[in-house]
Design brief:
Layout (H helix, E strand, L loop, with lengths): L1 H15 L29 E11 L5 E7 L2 E7 L5 H15 L7 E5 L3 H12 L3 E6 L29 H21 L6 E10 L26 E6 L10 E10 L1 H14 L3 E4 L5 H5 L5 E4 L5 H4 L6 E10 L7 E5 L8 E9 L2 E7 L1 E2 L8 H16 L5
Parallel strand pairs: 3-10, 4-5, 4-10, 5-9, 6-12
Antiparallel strand pairs: 1-11, 2-3, 6-8, 7-8, 11-14, 11-15, 12-13, 13-14
Helix pairs in contact: 2-3, 2-4, 3-5
The structure holds flavin-adenine dinucleotide (FAD).
């Protein structure tokens, strides 16, 4: 047992240093089985299905300064499936682009995760900020997110990456990763959660990534999931042979976004509810500095033809406070749009996902996807051993 503990701690420590090591099964004698509280999945426990449109750009988010008549407009939008994860990073980078600007008054367009984090990063640097937004939490796409720290998720097509964009991305991830760590456990709805990938096949040993020619891996090694550990047959009550644990940051959007609005107001921020029809209305705003964080709204406002919706859907069950882990597993017979089967607990319910449908604008739930996701979770958790 001592040896097992030492290997666990050693593996975690090395991952923390970015060396990507993990314990190997061969080294570890079996330990007592871990028991996880099963999720009670039933159609009569479904409390809602939500749909959100991720603001996706195949070549990745836009973070750059532009001119609009006499104004400087700093664009910060198009973060696809990773907008919450990247928001503190691109928010700080956007704010720092304005440090040489003569004015210390800024308008932020948008009050989702990206607009709010950008506004806070500006306030920390001495700017007086007014947010203008058509919708505020809980009525933003950000409120519809699964909201893990998933910085590489469906963000960019590999063949469209550029070294300049990669550098922006990596800087944004580094900044955000620390910011979320500082928020954990402080009433922001940000916590660390053990997440298990369930599989009947033994996972291959994780190797240290070698430098590759060309673009290389999108995500820095030390940010791709901490504390990897493999539970084998007999070591857990999941209905698969293996459960690979990683410890990840989970964000609860309802708590988190409200907390950001509160912080923004507490630091003197003003919020104006207003929908803009086109860029001319933005050009007519007072002041000379605008941050565009309108997510999918940027497509029409600033004529970005690349911006498209990646529709995503989550089904929510009655909360179960005793469930303190997440899972994901592959789903081979999934209907179109379903990307896998995954569950994470939150205060507002047990969240089941997930889907990705490119170019779909409808906010109507995809009934086939919902049925598949609920039934697959039901089959999985019904087979889980109970005490
Ligand atoms: C199912 C699902 C799962 C997801 N999971 C994750 C995850 O695990 N991790 C993660 O990081 N991300 C995840 N995302 C993605 C994440 O939700 C988005 O990347 C993020 O919400 C984008 O934030 P935003 O602030 O840019 O946009 P939004 O939240 O859409 O905010 C845009 C703001 O701009 C305003 N606006 C838009 N147009 C106008 C206009 N014309 N005039 C005035 N105001 C305007 C809106 O009213 C709103 O206030 C997920 C999304 C979905 C749908």
């Amino acid at each position: 047992m001592k040896r097992r503990m030492a290997l666990r701690l050693g593996g975690g420590g090395l991952v923390g240093l970015g060396l990507g090591a993990c314990s190997t099964r061969a080294d570890i004698p079996p330990g007592p089985a871990l028991h996880f509280a099963p999720v009670e999945v039933d159609w009569n426990r479904v409390i809602r299905t939500t749909v959100g449109l991720r603001p996706h750009r195949p070549s990745g988010f836009t973070l750059r300064a532009d001119r609009l008549d006499a104004k400087t407009v700093i664009h910060n939008y198009g973060h696809g499936g990773a907008g919450i994860s990247l928001s503190w990073g691109t928010g700080r980078m956007a704010a720092e682009m304005a440090l040489d600007h003569a004015s210390r008054e800024a308008i932020v367009l948008g009050s989702g995760a990206v607009g709010l984090a950008t506004a806070r990063q500006l306030q920390r640097r001495g700017f007086e900020v007014t947010i203008h937004a058509a919708a505020v939490p809980p009525n933003t796409t950000s409120n519809m997110a699964w909201a893990g720290f998933t910085p590489g998720s469906w963000l960019v097509e590999d063949n469209l990456r550029t070294p300049a964009w990669d550098a922006q991305f990596r800087e944004a991830v580094e900044i955000s990763y620390l910011e979320f760590q500082w928020l954990a456990g402080r009433g922001y709805g940000v916590e660390w959660l053990d997440h298990y990938s369930l599989n009947d096949n033994a996972p291959p040993p994780r190797r240290r990534r070698r430098p590759t020619r060309g673009r290389g891996p999108l995500l820095p090694e030390h940010l791709s999931g901490g504390g990897r550990f493999v539970l084998g047959p007999g070591e857990h009550n999941f209905p698969t042979q293996y459960a690979v644990r990683r410890t990840r940051i989970r964000i609860e959007p309802a708590i988190y976004l409200d907390a950001l609005v509160r912080d923004f107001r507490d630091h003197g921020g003003r919020l104006v509810i207003r929908k803009f029809e086109d860029a001319r209305e933005i050009a007519a705003l007072p002041g000379s500095l605008v941050f565009n964080c309108t997510g999918l709204g940027s497509g029409e406002l600033f004529e970005d033809p690349e911006l498209m919706p990646l529709r995503g859907q989550l089904t929510v069950l009655v909360p179960q406070p005793e469930v303190n882990y997440g899972i994901s597993t592959f789903s081979p017979d999934a209907p179109d749009g379903v990307t896998g089967v995954s569950m994470q607990p939150r205060n507002d319910g047990i969240i089941l996902g997930s889907t990705r449908e490119a170019g779909e604008w409808s906010l109507e739930p995809n009934a086939a996807a919902r049925e598949h996701i609920v039934n697959t979770h039901k089959a999985l958790f019904d087979r889980m051993a109970r005490p």
